[in-house]
Amino acid sequence: MLTHCQVPLIARAVGERGLISQLLGPKYGAFIVNGKTEPGLPPLASIRQIYKLDCVNSHTKIFGVVSNPVGHSKVPLLVDDLSEFFRVYSCNDFAGFSVGLPHKETALACCHEVDPLALLIGAVNTIIRRPSDGLLIGYNTDCEASITAIEDAYRGSSVNGRPPNVSPISGKLFVLIGAGGAGRAMVFGARSRGARVVIFNRNFERAKALAEAVSGEAKPYDGFRPEKGMILANSSAIGMEPNEDQTSISKPSLASYELVFDAVYTPRNTRLLQEAAEVGAIVVSGVEMFIRQALGQFKLFTHGLAPEEFMRKVVLEHF
Q1: Cβ distance 217 to 191 under 8 Å?
Q2: Longest CA–CA separation in the chain, Å
Q3: Which of these, 75, 116, 118, 202, could form a disulfide with 140 (CB 3.0-4.6 Å)?
Q4: Chain centre to alpha carbon of residue 226
Q5: Element (H, E) at 72
Q6: Which CATH architecture has domain 143-290?
């Protein structure tokens, strides 16, 4: 409406889906932006301070998080139908996208070109619109982010006895819960480091398909025999706000794991991680993966190195 209107217009969109219209209003000529007076919107002062609306103009490039739910993200693009979203928002000003649940696998088919690693994994978490021709290029930064977070946690602990050139997860049993886009990135990364892989998922056929892709095993929850020194990685949404009381595995079972990683980062210290620490496991928060994948995305978005120290400070203050 703002783009095509020939006279001054006040546009009000409310709720979660309305936030992005307020953030981008100045770009498209709006002279009034709504704040908390409308349902689902943050205070106006917060909008101005965080998003610097005084600096937004018609030349502003847009980089946002495409997900559902997406309320926990700072530049939220609440999307139900990913292909329809890209069809509608096709101009070069929509320059880059961080892809979240549940779209990481669907995003693969929406891209005109896909980086070989993302193609191998079968999931995309980063999309760039190439300025020269407007084509969508897909990448995956989740893989290295999750695996290096786990490796560095091992290297900083007393249980790592591997030489510097050998991954501390090589030869270990990597147990994955969840078989979605983030989980695919994790197990492909784990296999690339020499780990053995076992996958649990509520949809057993989906777990089997992923296990076959990485030469791993899919197991039913009641048919698994633990072994010493295992790694547990939760890639499901179990334990995410507002369901912080939930966990993907019982506390007694956690005693079999040497390291526990949880991709959930809201809250930062999930029930799974709290109980894993209580039984003596090394714990790795999803916030660490979140930061590392964002560092990779920043480089793809800007072609420059991210201000890592500043980004860590901001993220850790937020969470």
Answers
A1: no
A2: 70
A3: 118
A4: 29
A5: none
A6: 3-Layer(aba) Sandwich (3.40)
**Residue written as tokens 């020939």?**
6
Active site residue 104: yes
pLDDT 10s digits, 54-109: 899 999 999 999 988 776 566 788 899 999 999 999 999 999 999 988 899 999 99
User: Rounded to an integer, what distance in angstroms lies between the CA atom of residue 128 and that of residue 169?
Assistant: 32
**CA separation for the pair 25, 159 (Å, rounded):** 53
Question: Looking at residue 269, what DSSP letter applies?
Answer: S
Instruction: Give CA angle at 72 (68, 76), nearest 5°.
Output: 60
The active-site residue, picked from 52, 61, 104, 219, is 104
The H-or-E segment that residue 273 falls in is: helix 271-278
Strand partners, 128: 96, 137
Residue boundaries of the structural domains of the chain: 1-60, 61-140, 143-290
pLDDT score of 84: 95
Residue 280 phi/psi, 5° resolution?
95, 10
Domains 61-140 and 143-290 share a fold: yes
Query: What single DSSP character describes residue 162?
Result: S
User: Any idea which fold 61-140 has?
Assistant: Rossmann fold (3.40.50)
Separation of alpha carbons 57 and 64, rounded Å: 17
With both helix axes pointing from N to C terminus, report the angle between 142-155 and 286-302 in degrees, rounded to the nearest 10: 130
Determine phi and psi for 253, rounding to 5 degrees: -70, -25
Residue 223 buriedness (CB in 10 A; 0-12 / 13-18 / 19+): exposed
Q: What share of the chain is helix, strand, coil (3-state, %, to 5)?
A: 35, 15, 45
Dihedral sign of CA atoms 117, 121, 127, 130 in order: positive
* Full-model pTM: 0.88
Query: Rounded to 10 degrees, what is the CA torsion of 11, 16, 22, 24?
Result: -110
